[in-house]
Amino acid sequence: MNGDDYGHADTAADGTDRLVGAEAESDESAVEAALRPRELSEFIGQSKVREQLDLVLKAARRRGGTADHVLLSGAPGLGKTTLSMIIAAEMSAPIRITSGPAIQHAGDLAAILSSLQEGEILFLDEIHRMSRPAEEMLYMAMEDYRVDVIVGKGPGATAIPLELPPFTLVGATTRAGLLPPPLRDRFGFTAHMEFYEPGELEQVVHRSARLLDVRTDAEGATEIAGRSRGTPRIANRLLRRVRDYAQVKADGMIDRDIASRALAVYEVDERGLDRLDRAVLGALLKLFGGGPVGLSTLSVAVGEERETVEEVAEPFLVREGLLARTPRGRIATPAAWDHLGLARPPQSPGSPAGTRQQGLFGE
């Protein structure tokens, strides 16, 4: 799920899994599901979202009705699916889970909607990737709890109205800007999920360690949290890999030294950059002098698909202040040279001479 942002894929073009990808591999999905909190009070981080959502759900329970439709936006791995399951648990309602790409025709959506029970939660992941005909059907379903099913084709086609029981739609998206306004406006509550602070991720690591029966001290948890890219899903994955290392190479106890050595084995550096991230930065600095360079050229230089570089590596590098996008191409920031331990040439982007001559930051 949640596969249309910087965590678009866990597998690079060479077939290797990315340990810091935000997507969950199929063989680890069950483990990640076991680590999910079951109640809103157990959910770590997103304090504003939790407070607002708590009010929405409590008010709905006191009215004895269904909760308003909820839209959750944010990067992959921040807890959108978990929150949808918590909403169902808090409302004591069943939950139906599907995704936008799975709904390619209006009939697909009609089949799902017609089988919903009263009060049921419908979780629609990557809602922005739903087909337009299904999207338009969803407008009426959300507002009037009714859909018109078209029977037949051409002049003989007939619209049969189908009444729906009250339900709550929980939509999740990594690209809220791609949602058309008519759909976005039909959600009674919208929330944007922010990246986690290191302290919050430390709480996530400690909680997951208890559930996995892993021994870790405060410094070990801090080390893992600091390399988790602000994402709980990544923190949980790194914890499991460090646990493996600690069990094989040490006595099973995770401290700062063990965590550092384990993550070095898995090529995750102190800022959370992995092999692909460093390859992109390395090519930009060593081959192109810090840029500017076009995305296609940069992709060829690192041996990856253009989409992989743009959707997997770039967003995190930009957020970390290591790379910038300009109209003339990608450029490295001074922090990128420092992070890789390379000396900045006089004409590099970010140096006084380079900025004056190339006009990179002013475009």
From TrEMBL:
EC number(s) from the headed UniProt entry: 3.6.4.-
Chain residue ranges for the region called Head domain (RuvB-H): 270-363
SUPFAM superfamilies, sorted: P-loop containing nucleoside triphosphate hydrolases, Winged helix' DNA-binding domain
Disordered: annotated span: 1-25, 340-363
UniProt-annotated stretches for the region Small ATPAse domain (RuvB-S): 197-267
InterPro entries (UniProt xref): AAA+_ATPase (IPR003593), AAA_lid_4 (IPR041445), DNA_helicase_Holl-junc_RuvB (IPR004605), P-loop_NTPase (IPR027417), RuvB-like_N (IPR008824), RuvB_wg_C (IPR008823), WH-like_DNA-bd_sf (IPR036388), WH_DNA-bd_sf (IPR036390)
Annotated keywords: ATP-binding, Cytoplasm, DNA damage, DNA recombination, DNA repair, DNA-binding, Helicase, Hydrolase, Nucleotide-binding
Chain positions recorded as DNA binding sites: 306, 325, 330
Biased composition (Polar residues): 354-363
Catalyzed reactions: ATP + H2O = ADP + phosphate + H(+)
One cellular-component annotation, GO: cytoplasm
A molecular function (GO) term: four-way junction DNA binding
Amino acids binding ATP: 35-36, 77, 80-82, 143-145, 186, 196, 233
Chain ranges of the AAA+ ATPase domain: 66-197
GO biological process: DNA recombination; DNA repair
Physiological role: The RuvA-RuvB-RuvC complex processes Holliday junction (HJ) DNA during genetic recombination and DNA repair, while the RuvA-RuvB complex plays an important role in the rescue of blocked DNA replication forks via replication fork reversal (RFR). RuvA specifically binds to HJ cruciform DNA, conferring on it an open structure. The RuvB hexamer acts as an ATP-dependent pump, pulling dsDNA into and through the RuvAB complex. RuvB forms 2 homohexamers on either side of HJ DNA bound by 1 or 2 RuvA tetramers; 4 subunits per hexamer contact DNA at a time.
Record family assignment: Belongs to the RuvB family.
UniProt note: domains: Has 3 domains, the large (RuvB-L) and small ATPase (RuvB-S) domains and the C-terminal head (RuvB-H) domain. The head domain binds DNA, while the ATPase domains jointly bind ATP, ADP or are empty depending on the state of the subunit in the translocation cycle. During a single DNA translocation step the structure of each domain remains the same, but their relative positions change.
Subunit architecture: Homohexamer. Forms an RuvA(8)-RuvB(12)-Holliday junction (HJ) complex. HJ DNA is sandwiched between 2 RuvA tetramers; dsDNA enters through RuvA and exits via RuvB. An RuvB hexamer assembles on each DNA strand where it exits the tetramer. Each RuvB hexamer is contacted by two RuvA subunits (via domain III) on 2 adjacent RuvB subunits; this complex drives branch migration. In the full resolvosome a probable DNA-RuvA(4)-RuvB(12)-RuvC(2) complex forms which resolves the HJ.
Identification of the protein by name: Holliday junction branch migration complex subunit RuvB
UniProt source species: Streptomyces abyssalis
